[in-house]
Amino acid sequence: MGKKTNGEKNSNIAVYHITFPYYIFEQWFTLLEDENRKRKKILKAPLEFNYFLSILAQYFPNRQIEAILKILVEYNIIPYSLDYTTIWKRLQNKQNIDYYKLIDNKKNNKILKLIIMFDNKKNKFVNVQISVEDKNNVVSIFHGDIT
């Protein structure tokens, strides 16, 4: 899920808190192998990844989603970034997302947490913090300042 809060008062910076089940990122190639077996065209990302894109699309336009995916590649959360056209096509095929069913899935031992600071006036990211938390509250933190 996601949540938007404002940074400092009278600031143009919005802070977004987004959490998502980590198993999709952890089992990327296993999910992809199953899906590509049934398709003529080879996919670079599993279809479950569309849920993640849909959540990001609630807060950001496709160009910013593309930038977020590049950051996730940089921190080895995902192996490939999708281009603008692929993001657009996947978002056109939106399904009704039962996010809570996805969260309650027994495969979910870890949660990906993104804290994104976005400057609305300059239309660019200020900071993106990424962490992976498991059920025992053990956290792996990846973060970076974007300047």
UniProtKB/TrEMBL annotation:
PANTHER family: ISSOD12 TRANSPOSASE TNPA_ISSOD12, PTHR34631
Protein name per its UniProtKB record: Transposase
